[in-house]
Each structure stands twice: as structure tokens, then as C-alpha cells.
Design brief:
The protein is mainly α and about 375 residues long. It has one domain: TIM Barrel. The chain has a 4-stranded parallel beta sheet. Helix 4 links the parallel strand 1 and strand 2. Helix 2 packs across helix 13, helix 7 packs antiparallel against helix 14 and helix 8 runs parallel beside helix 10. The radius of gyration is 23 Å and the shape is globular. The N and C termini lie far apart (about 90 Å). Keywords: Hydrolase, Signal. One of its GO terms (biological process) is glucan catabolic process. InterPro entries: Cellulose_Degrad_GH3, GH, Glyco_hydro_3_N, Glyco_hydro_3_N_sf. It holds the Pfam family Glyco_hydro_3.
Length: about 375
């Protein structure tokens, strides 16, 4: 065998061994060619308890820092109403802020990206120069599901422009304008906003089955859960007293449709300091509230200002076997599923790709005629 041929063979063997070692060093959960379920299973097997519990916490942006995101493996950050990085913040201002938090997340031990959320309830309404649409009660008056779907698509694109991938019956209820109608049929029709926000479910997928959300879309949240618009005496965040027939015929249909249209790709998240109010005096027994909330099926808890208290209490409850580990795993799997389906592990950082879409005139023109007609007819 010639010296040249020997060197060639040795070179090939070295290259092959290097490829094998490199592939072995790269975790399965970071391989986009693997099925999502396989990636989740691999990542879950590597996570410590504190990292799993960190994923179950959502902070307000005022409480978050890159260091907090990294240290606690925080799962999500949100902007509460009116919470912006700067007055009249531009798309670049939003992206710079969100990417700052994300850099902290991806620098953690396992590099799990966070998901940023915001209330975009009638357009991307927290953002300066965004297109503002009528509130849902006005859109319900149009009786036009296709219009609502197009408004959802416009809202999704404007939310993505700022780097954000995650977005009643009693008239005495102060938030009744956030519902589409008191007529369950109308509300069911208006769930078309979900495919507008998330994209249509691929033709080769079963309805309600998780699918990868395109880059110009966002993960939708059906809120504020079944029965919230029918609270006693119309009081916000009050109990809903209703019989089973009323619950299933009035409040449930739109949520069933929401699940069918893809919201089931997500997780259950509590409202702003919501679990604090499980006791008659809010925050009177926070450990109990954490226990009751998680055991009831809440996967991620919105803890805008007290994430360390939540993490400490939940950790203690798990270590004392009050909350079983499989409940924690169930919650974290749902959270990771959304992040994988959004492509955050491959593209965690936001960019300015859609910045020119913010406040685009074509979004307003597409809906103004129908909305004007609805007002005139009334």
C-alpha cells in the first residue's frame, strides 16, 4: 500500500471518528431533524427540578433581567398592560429588550429559550404605531369570521415585528367588551381568529394536533377560560355560579372550537397574580394557593413580581411529595412543546424582518369598510 493511500485512509478514519464524537456531544433536543416528542423527552431527562420549576414561572418584564433568566431558567416574560421598554418604543426597542432577556435564557446550563407574551386583544395595542382594531364586541357585531381571521393574521405579523411570539354574558362585567358576543354561536364563529394568529392547521394534520407555527405567526391564548364572562353580579375575577347545562351550552362551545383549531398545542397559564386570589384575602396562604393551582392543572403561573417565592414554595411542595413529580413533568412538557413548535430552539433571537409591517396601512384598509358598515347598520 502506498504512503499516499495510507494517509488518505487515516484521514478518512479521523474525519469519521470526529463526526461520531461531534454527533454524540450534540444533545438530541438540539437536533431539529428529530421528532418534537423525542426532543422533549431528551431535554426532560437532562433537566433538574429547579430548571423545570423555573420553566413554570412567567415574570413581568420589570422584574426580569438576563441574569435572573439564566439563574432560574425562567420560562416566560410578559408585558402587562401599558408595560413598554420606552415611551413610544419602536420595533427595534422591543426587539432589543426581548433579545436581552433571551440571551440570559440561552446562556443557562441547557440553553432553554424563554417565550415572551403580551396582551394583543384588539391589535398589537401595547405598541406605539401599531394598527388598532375595534374591541372584540365590535368585531362580533360584524358577524364576519373571515374578517376576524384576517385581523388575527395582521395582529400576529405586527407582534412578530416586535419580537413577540406568544399573544361575557353579564353587561355589568367591566370587561364584557373583550368578548365577541353574549350569543354562543357568534363567539364560536369568531374563533377563526385563532388560525389567523397561529396559521391554518396543515391539511395532513388532525385538528387539535400540535403543529409547527410559521415564523410570521404567534401562539394564541384563549382567555380567560371557561365561564369568566358569566361571573356572579358581573364582578371581575369572581365566581361563576352556573349549572352543568348552562356551562356546556353557553361557555364551553367556543373553547371546544378553540382546542380543535390548535390552542391545544399550548399550556394552561394563570392570570396576573391569579393564584394569589384563591384565598379570600389575597396572598393570605401562598403555599396553599400554589398547591391548589398546580394540582388543578395550571402549567405556567403568572408571577409578575414574586417569582422567588413561587419557585421556593413549589420546590418545597414537590420535595415533600405534596405535588407529585409527574404533575411537574406534565406541565413542563406542555411548555416545551410550544417552544419547539414556535422554532425557538433553532431561532431564539428576534430580528427586524417584519419591522416594516408595524402599523401597515393595508391592515386598516382591509377591515375599515366592514366595520363602518356594522356601525351604520346599527
Amino acid at each position: 500500500m502506498s504512503r499516499v493511500l495510507m494517509l488518505q485512509l487515516l484521514g478518512m478514519l479521523w474525519l469519521f471518528s470526529w463526526m461520531v464524537v461531534t454527533e454524540a456531544d450534540s444533545p438530541i433536543y438540539k437536533d431539529p431533524k428529530q421528532p418534537v416528542a423525542v426532543r422533549i423527552k431528551d431535554l426532560m431527562s437532562r433537566m433538574k427540578l429547579e430548571e423545570k420549576i423555573g420553566q413554570m414561572a412567567q415574570l413581568d418584564r420589570l422584574s426580569a433581567t438576563p441574569e435572573i433568566m439564566r439563574t432560574y431558567s425562567i420560562g416566560s416574560v410578559l408585558s402587562g398592560g401599558g408595560s413598554t421598554p420606552l415611551p413610544d418604543a419602536t420595533a427595534k426597542d422591543w426587539i432589543d429588550m426581548i433579545n436581552g432577556f433571551q440571551k440570559g435564557s440561552v446562556s443557562s446550563r441547557l440553553g432553554i429559550p424563554m417565550i415572551y407574551g403580551i396582551d394583543a386583544v384588539h391589535g398589537h395595542n401595547n405598541v406605539y404605531n401599531a394598527t388598532i382594531f375595534p374591541h372584540n364586541v365590535g368585531l362580533g357585531a360584524t358577524r364576519d369570521p373571515d374578517l376576524v381571521k384576517r385581523i388575527g393574521a395582521a395582529t400576529a405579523l405586527e407582534a412578530r415585528a416586535t419580537g413577540i411570539p406568544y399573544v361575557c354574558r353579564d353587561p355589568r362585567w367591566g370587561r364584557c367588551y373583550e368578548s365577541y358576543s353574549e350569543d354562543p354561536k357568534v363567539v364560536r364563529e369568531m374563533t377563526e381568529i385563532i388560525p389567523g394568529l397561529q396559521g391554518d392547521i396543515p391539511s395532513n394534520s388532525r385538528r387539535g394536533v400540535p403543529y409547527v407555527i410559521p415564523k410570521n405567526k404567534v401562539a394564541a391564548c384563549a382567555k380567560h377560560f371557561v365561564g369568566d364572562g358569566g361571573t356572579t353580579k358581573g364582578a371581575n375575577e369572581n365566581n361563576t355560579v352556573i349549572d352543568r347545562h348552562g356551562l356546556l351550552s353557553i361557555h364551553m362551545p367556543a373553547y371546544v372550537d378553540s382546542v380543535i383549531k390548535g390552542v391545544s398545542t399550548g399550556f394552561v397559564i394563570s392570570d396576573w397574580q391569579g393564584i394569589d386570589k384563591l384565598t379570600s384575602t389575597p396572598h393570605a396562604n401562598y403555599t396553599y394557593s400554589v398547591q391548589a393551582g398546580i394540582l388543578a392543572g395550571i402549567d405556567m403561573v403568572m408571577v409578575p413580581y414574586n417569582h422567588t417565592e413561587f419557585i421556593d414554595d413549589l420546590t418545597l411542595l414537590v420535595k415533600k411529595n405534596v405535588i407529585p413529580m409527574d404533575r411537574i413533568d406534565d406541565a413542563v412538557e406542555r411548555i416545551l412543546l410550544v417552544k419547539f413548535n414556535l422554532g425557538l430552539f433553532e431561532n431564539p433571537m428576534a430580528d427586524l424582518s417584519f419591522a416594516n409591517e408595524l402599523g401597515s396601512q393595508r391592515f386598516g384598509e382591509g377591515s375599515s369598510e366592514k366595520i363602518t358598515c356594522a356601525v351604520e347598520e346599527r
